[in-house]
TrEMBL record:
Protein name in UniProt: Reverse transcriptase Ty1/copia-type domain-containing protein
Pfam families the record matches: RVT_2
Residue ranges occupied by any Reverse transcriptase Ty1/copia-type domain in the UniProt entry: 11-252
InterPro entries, sorted: DNA/RNA_pol_sf, RVT_2
Domain of life: Eukaryota
Length: 491
């Protein structure tokens, strides 16, 4: 607590003043946390003073609050590119990041509990404080303006990616709130960047990248392994799964969840917590994407059948605890995409499921399992809607990869297992069977003609996106997991 108060004083976070008439006061409180390393040992004891931002009123105490963070697929894309180029990956962390943000509004706060000051004084905040609604935005603005002074620019496709290209080489910095990954081939420039940031902010240099946002990253001569084994084992203990029963697939074959199966859960909060954690686990575990997408649909009124489905996913995880993504150092930097749909797969509302995945060489960098918003009247229409979703992700990834220094001059191959959907994309046919998906037709055809993508037919056996749209038998699940380069990497 003393350390935190010292940091606040050093930063000149507030001035003690008498409260002007007509001004409201925001409360504050202490939050305590024990931070652990990836092996579970204690790293530090942390006390943080937070403002009670929930009492702030929009338009009086704050205006805009949006602050960009790195999209998780851009984190994976950056790691895949760094692995293939054999670049060193470094990690830094900003201590008390939000205290660096400058406040433009007048905010008054009660003095922190435990600080002895005159009774009629309040803190007039000069700097942002954790808990204030505008704190993340103020910090991001401060960081951006600081790094721009060193000649860096923000990528137009991901505001949290900063890059600098000189004759000496490229440097990339990806920011996620106060954690950052730094990589590139200009090592002297990277050292200069670290020194510059350390002069501007209180920084913690964490050396080579090893543990970032709950992702465990292991470097070897043949590439990078990315797992969330610690996160998964914490989740299993939270769910109380102590027996050693495991299953081979995350979803029971041909099992469909419905809103009214089984009895309502008496306490749905554990279900919601587990599903929330499983959603974050899909960052390195595409094999559970479809299963998690299924159980996420029943968060408002979960029932016993839904809880049983969550337990099945956890039993599957128990048997595949150390599975994670492998990014090979030998992987060619060529993007390819797979798109698939499961037509009218949901028995309740007959909506289809879109599934897609993107590989950079052999490295899986982006995927999705999502229920379509409209009911498709044919399998072709469902596949076509999936193609349109895949195309918009494909365009964004091509732009992002260009910023990461990967050539995207040739068209990206997009594999689809529905011949009619490919036929519609290539031929200018509009009649009553396609007029209601006309916008999607024009969208895909436009980018097809302008050389951003090329459509190829693929047999259902080689369709990698299959795993994101339906439950599969054990053997097929195993084959797809191998093809997506999901490997087990025990410590």
């Amino acid at each position: 607590m003393k350390e935190e108060l010292d940091a606040l004083t050093k930063n000149h976070t507030w001035d003690l003043v008498t409260l002007p008439p007509g001004q409201s006061v925001v409360g504050c409180k202490w939050i305590y946390k024990i931070k652990t390393r990836s092996d579970g040992s204690v790293e530090s004891y942390k006390a943080r003073l937070v403002a009670k931002g929930f009492t702030q009123e929009y338009g009086i105490d704050y205006e805009e609050t949006f602050a960009p963070v790195a999209r998780i697929s851009s984190v994976r894309a950056l790691l895949a590119v760094a692995a293939a180029r054999k670049w060193d990956l470094f990690q830094m962390d900003v201590k008390n990041a939000f205290l660096n943000g400058d406040l433009s509004e007048e905010v008054y706060m009660q003095p922190p509990p435990g600080l002895s000051i005159e009774s009629n004084k309040v803190c007039h905040l000069r700097r942002a404080l954790y808990g204030l609604k505008q704190a993340p935005r103020a910090w991001f603005a401060k960081f951006s303006s600081t790094i721009f002074r060193l000649g860096y620019t923000a990528s137009p496709y991901n505001s949290a990616l900063f890059l600098r290209r000189t004759d000496k080489g490229t440097i990339l910095l990806l920011l996620y709130v106060d954690d950052m990954i730094i990589t590139g081939d200009d090592l002297s420039g990277i050292q200069e960047l670290k020194d510059f940031l350390s002069q501007q902010f209180e920084m913690k240099d964490l050396g080579h990248l090893s543990y970032f946002l709950g992702l465990e990253i292991t470097h070897s001569t043949d590439g990078l392994y990315i797992t969330q084994a610690k996160y998964a084992s914490n989740l299993l203990s939270q769910a109380g799964l102590t027996d050693s029963k495991t299953v081979d697939t995350p979803v029971e074959l041909n099992a469909h969840l419905t809103p009214l199966g089984g009895k309502p859960l008496s306490n749905p909060s554990l279900y919601r917590r587990l599903v929330g954690s499983l959603v974050y686990l899909t960052v390195t575990r595409p094999d559970i994407s479809y299963a998690v997408h299924q159980v996420s649909q029943y968060l408002s009124a979960p029932r016993s059948t839904h809880y049983a489905a969550v337990l099945r996913i956890l039993r599957y995880l128990k048997g595949t605890l150390f599975h994670g993504l492998f990014y090979s150092a030998q992987s060619p930097l060529v993007l390819r995409a797979f798109s698939d749909a499961d037509w009218a797969g949901d028995p309740t509302d007959r909506r289809s499921t879109t599934g897609y995945c993107f590989l950079l060489g052999s490295s899986l960098i982006s995927w999705r399992s999502k229920k379509q918003t409209f009911v498709a009247r044919s399998s072709t229409e469902a596949e076509y809607r999936a193609l349109a979703d895949t195309t918009s992700e494909l365009l964004w990834l091509r732009w992002l990869l260009k910023d990461l220094g990967v050539s995207t001059s040739s068209a990206t191959p997009l594999y689809c297992d529905n011949q009619s959907a490919i036929h519609i994309a290539h031929n200018d046919v509009f009649h009553e069977r396609t007029k209601h998906i006309e916008i999607d037709c024009h969208f895909i055809r436009y980018h097809l003609l302008h050389g951003a993508l090329k459509l190829f037919s693929v047999s259902s056996k080689d369709q990698l996106a299959d795993i994101f749209t339906k439950s599969l038998p054990n053997r097929r699940t195993r084959d797809l997991v191998d093809n997506l380069k999901l490997v087990s990497h025990p410590p």
